[in-house]
DNA sequence: ATCTCCCGCCATATG
DNA sequence: CATATGGCGGGAGAT
């Protein structure tokens, strides 16, 4: 019927931006939007071209051209159906590119960045419906916000960093990592026992438990307040998009298969109701979302090959999100709202409404100080949540923040604490956290720096240094306050996600970071569950990006972006205020407490003004330096690398960490992740085996208790950071331990299972699990796994770790747990 | 056949 | 009530 212009397909046509042609009748093109300030930046154009001109398309186009012999339409109608707009040309992804091309990534406040849906739809000549699809996901990233009926405000990537951070946090709170594990485990089981008596694995229950319904995650974004119009209840596409992104952010290899994503997004609730159609629909939506995210270059399509064939998946290619960044918002905020400490204190989560309204009735009380802030926001979206309450959470992070702003905050914090306590008994933990200090400083990777963690470290970090450093040393020095308390010893637990097996490798004791080109990833987490893996290569897969022009370009772009973002966010010194999700959760609802797995509702973030550009210059390098280097390093050997274990951020070791560690362990029953623990201190101090400080003791204790490490093994803590307020730890520790016991057993069983299956052949592994079997104290054993990525694809990597079987020994208490194989291939 | 995912009906929300 | 939004899923192009 329609006779589209033929061969629109020519590359030229495609490249040409938006629809040069058409619309004879309708309103003429509107000049208005096309102003000098126009969005088209060289970058964007380039970007667009690159992305658009994918090889596939190009080849396709060529074919077409040949066939047509360039004639547009002339000959015969034989061209019949060949109509052009081959499906691909109408793809959401391409459309999205066009859309994005219209606006600058980083619009200046000055320009009018308004988006009129009608116009856009018209100009791009697509149905409005499609525009909604795009806008909705952009909205989920806070790249746009709705102003009113037909109008949206374009924010570009200014908020992206914060958004991602928030999403990551929420994802962590929602225990997506565990959910993913569960799902994978389930699949695994199915494969195995065909009999399938799906053991009523608690796993399920876990998942089902949480079924948290989450609503839109709000982020502090600029004019978000104005977005009064937005939102309503469902927002499914938006929410879905956020969840999808969260999955990437919490996954260690940042690869998420559609299947897994769909399952999680779907039934966050019920056990698998293998509702086929529902699943299908979900997948469709995910594709839609993925297309947009791909256009944003946040993800790219890959395939994961597992035992059962290859499945479509996507790999995160966007900026990595720092684990601990909690400080970011605060920092920003503080700058923004210097006066009201309280406000500044509020960090995302605190402000949150319940994203995940867990079934439980959670009654949060809003902290007075927050009320004002929240109030306005709430008005805007009052209608949105039918939810009666918009709980505001205040948590430990606040306390932490105190450190930063000692004087001012003090009172506030005090208040906060009281309130918290009042709210829930569970809050007790919070106290602990506050003492913890958090300074992120970059860890010196290879070069151990003698100096104190403080600012010193950060200063000259090589590119590889951790991003965490987020704050430049300069800042640190500037605001000494930040490091109020002595640094706490920070230990980090490294674990491997079973599901995402990747190469595991040993890490060097010295913590050298190496960009692991191939290694994708092991997960490294700080105790408090923040992942520190900045190191992972972006190109992650062992792919060598070098030759691909596109990639290189993207890389560059990325760099640019990163630096920018980092600069923004690093306005302040490093304080890693970490917040503990755990704590938050605990206090949030008591009921859920019992099941450790229960999810707690999280809130949405209240938008704070976004940070202005402050001194960006100073830190350009810190944050993502690692990435940059990584990118460059693409040429590096395919081998899986060493797992960089270092934990850059010195976080206070808080109790939460303990909780978390166990959780992680227990959660991944399937393959069980290894939990290597390291202290970042080692970086500074050459010796790893220094005497344990309290924190390390606790940690060791915990680990031992859980059975992850042998009694003899000890995890060193960072000397510098030592004074972690350990005081209360015992309680917490015990507490967590208790919870974990059950889990412990399961974990073991799982391990055994693995062994049975032959996945683990190592005695070592077992022995390591046995507390009774002491091993060399200083050298815990590692169970290495064969993870492999099989060859075949560019991505394939073999585990570098030398001795194939878990014989490797890793210097400091590192435990690696075996995994299943998994291959990732591009495209 | 499977993977992608476009198209657009039609229920809802908004104004 | 007229529109603006946006679930949803059929079904077809791409592989």
TrEMBL record:
Residues 21-40, 61-87, 768-827 are annotated as: Disordered. GO terms for biological process: negative regulation of DNA-templated transcription; positive regulation of macromolecule metabolic process; positive regulation of nucleobase-containing compound metabolic process; sprouting angiogenesis. Keywords: Activator, Cell cycle, DNA-binding, Nucleus, Repressor, Transcription, Transcription regulation. InterPro entries: E2F (IPR015633), E2F_WHTH_DNA-bd_dom (IPR003316), WH-like_DNA-bd_sf (IPR036388), WH_DNA-bd_sf (IPR036390). The keyword Transcription regulation applies. Its main location: nucleus. GO terms for molecular function: DNA-binding transcription factor activity, RNA polymerase II-specific; RNA polymerase II cis-regulatory region sequence-specific DNA binding. It is found in: Nucleus. Residues 793-814 have a biased composition (Polar residues). Residues 87-156, 232-318 form the E2F/DP family winged-helix DNA-binding domain. The keyword rRNA-binding does not apply. Pfam families: WHD_E2F_TDP. GO terms for cellular component: RNA polymerase II transcription regulator complex. Gene3D superfamilies: Winged helix-like DNA-binding domain superfamily/Winged helix DNA-binding domain. This is Transcription factor E2F8. It comes from Chordeiles acutipennis (Lesser nighthawk).
């Amino acid at each position: 019927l329609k006779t589209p212009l033929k061969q629109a397909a020519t590359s030229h046509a495609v490249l040409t931006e938006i629809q040069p042609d058409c619309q004879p009748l309708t309103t003429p093109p509107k000049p208005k939007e096309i102003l000098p300030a126009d969005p088209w930046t060289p970058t964007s154009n380039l970007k667009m071209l690159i992305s658009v001109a994918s090889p596939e398309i190009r080849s396709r186009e060529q074919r077409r051209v040949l066939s047509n012999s360039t004639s547009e339409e002339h000959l015969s109608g034989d061209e019949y159906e060949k109509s052009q707009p081959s499906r691909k040309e109408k793809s959401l992804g391409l459309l999205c590119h066009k859309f994005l091309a219209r606006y600058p990534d980083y619009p200046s406040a000055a320009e009018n960045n308004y988006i009129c849906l009608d116009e856009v739809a018209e100009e791009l000549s697509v149905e409005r419906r499609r525009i909604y699809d795009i806008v909705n996901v952009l909205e989920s990233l806070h790249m746009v916000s709705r102003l009113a009926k037909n109008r949206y405000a374009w924010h570009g990537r200014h908020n992206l960093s914060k958004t991602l951070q928030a999403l990551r946090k929420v994802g962590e709170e929602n225990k997506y990592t565990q959910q993913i594990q569960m799902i994978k485990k389930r699949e695994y089981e199915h494969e195995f026992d065909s009999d399938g008596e799906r053991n009523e694995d608690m796993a399920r229950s876990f998942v089902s438990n949480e079924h948290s319904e989450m609503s839109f995650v709000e982020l502090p974004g600029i004019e978000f307040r104005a977005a009064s119009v937005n939102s309503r209840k469902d927002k499914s596409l938006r929410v879905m998009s956020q969840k999808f992104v969260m999955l990437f952010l919490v996954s260690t290899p940042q690869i998420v298969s559609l299947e897994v994503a769909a399952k999680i997004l779907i039934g966050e609730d019920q056990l698998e109701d293998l509702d086929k159609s529902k699943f299908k629909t979900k997948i469709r939506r995910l594709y839609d979302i993925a297309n947009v995210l791909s256009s944003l270059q946040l993800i790219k399509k890959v395939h994961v090959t597992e035992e059962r064939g290859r499945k479509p998946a996507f790999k995160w290619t966007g900026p990595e999100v720092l684990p601990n960044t909690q400080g970011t918002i605060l920092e920003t905020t503080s700058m923004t709202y210097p006066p009201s400490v309280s406000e500044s204190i509020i960090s995302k989560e605190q402000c949150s409404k319940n994203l995940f309204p867990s079934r439980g009735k959670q009654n949060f009380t809003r902290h007075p100080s927050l009320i004002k802030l929240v109030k306005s926001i709430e008005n805007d979206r009052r209608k949105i949540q039918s939810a009666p309450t918009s709980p505001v959470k205040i948590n430990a992070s606040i306390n932490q923040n105190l450190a930063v702003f000692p004087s001012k905050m003090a009172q506030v914090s005090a208040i906060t604490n009281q309130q918290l306590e009042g709210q829930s008994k569970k809050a007790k933990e919070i106290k602990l956290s506050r003492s913890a200090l958090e300074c992120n400083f970059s860890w010196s990777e290879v070069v151990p720096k003698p100096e104190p963690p403080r600012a010193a470290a950060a200063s000259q970090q090589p590119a590889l240094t951790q991003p965490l450093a987020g704050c430049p040393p300069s800042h640190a020095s500037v605001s000494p306050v930040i490091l109020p308390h002595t640094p706490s010893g920070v230990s980090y637990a490294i674990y491997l996600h079973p599901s995402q097996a990747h190469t595991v490798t040993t890490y060097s004791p010295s913590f050298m970071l190496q960009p692991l080109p191939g290694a994708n990833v092991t997960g490294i987490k700080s105790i408090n569950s923040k992942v520190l893996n900045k190191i992972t290569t972006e190109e992650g897969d062992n792919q060598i990006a070098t030759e691909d022009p596109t990639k290189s370009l993207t890389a560059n772009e990325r760099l640019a972006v990163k630096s920018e973002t980092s600069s923004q966010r690093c306005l302040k010194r490093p304080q890693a205020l970490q917040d503990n999700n755990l704590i938050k959760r605990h206090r949030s609802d008591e009921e859920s407490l019992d099941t450790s797995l229960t999810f707690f509702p999280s809130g949405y973030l209240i938008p704070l003004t976004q940070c202005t550009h402050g001194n960006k210059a100073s830190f350009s390098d810190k944050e993502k330096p690692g990435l940059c280097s990584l990118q460059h390093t693409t040429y590096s050997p395919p081998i899986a690398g060493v797992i960089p274990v270092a934990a850059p951020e010195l976080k206070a070791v808080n109790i939460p960490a303990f909780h978390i560690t166990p959780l992680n362990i227990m959660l991944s029953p399937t393959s069980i992740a290894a939990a290597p623990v390291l202290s970042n201190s080692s970086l500074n101090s050459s010796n790893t085996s220094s005497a344990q400080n309290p924190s390390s003791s606790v940690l060791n204790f915990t680990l031992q208790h859980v059975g992850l490490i042998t009694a003899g093994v000890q995890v060193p803590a960072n000397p510098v950071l030592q004074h972690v307020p350990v005081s209360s730890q015992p309680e917490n520790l015990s507490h967590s331990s208790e919870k974990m016991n059950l889990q412990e057993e399961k974990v073991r069983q799982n391990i055994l299972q693995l062994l049975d299956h032959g996945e683990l052949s190592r005695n070592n592994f077992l022995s390591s699990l046995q507390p009774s079997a002491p091993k060399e104290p200083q050298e815990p054993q590692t169970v290495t796994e064969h993870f492999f990525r099989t060859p075949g694809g560019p991505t394939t990597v073999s585990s570098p770790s030398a001795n194939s079987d878990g014989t490797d020994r890793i210097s400091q208490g590192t435990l690696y747990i075996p995994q299943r194989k998994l291959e990732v291939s591009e495209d």
